[in-house]
Amino acid sequence: IYNGKDQASDLLIGLELTNNGESLLGKVDLSFADANAQPVQEVKNVGAYKLVVTAKEDSDYTGSAALDFTISKLKLQDSDLETTLAATYNGKDQTDDLLKGLTLNHKTTKESLLGKVDLSFTDANGQPVQEVKNAGEYKLVVTAKADTNYEGSAEVAFTVSKLVLQAENLEDNFAELELTYTGGNQIAVVQNN
To answer: What is the pTM of this model?
Structure first.
């Protein structure tokens, strides 16, 4: 399974290679090739590979043989995603701003997933939303693109926090209000022109 690292040396650890019960280790050279039998320097990305076993000249063997293996895609899971997603209500759609400043990494591979996934937003109930505007719970849905080392979808929950009201941020028209004492109840009517 893809892990973001060259796996060649890991594949050889604990390798038992025998012919009719006789160990071949020390009697053969080992190398890696792609599916077309072209030598490769690292075994990292998703795809088909070959472990090429070539007899050493000073052994009792001759020739070479290849063992096929595959590195499969890493399935995205909610717990594997690291992000810096957060916002505070400002009365505007924040979708573009959230995506512009987005950091989205995979915990295992330590790779950025940006460009390798498609992104969309849902509300807390999983219903797609076109804009992230109001305070509340949302989810970022991360779906792997077909031509990457990843597969599947995962979600990251985040919150658009409520805006704390502060007097200095309020706009008012108190200076325009004029009431004259009449001795009774009065209702101020504000009209915007």
So the answer is: 0.77
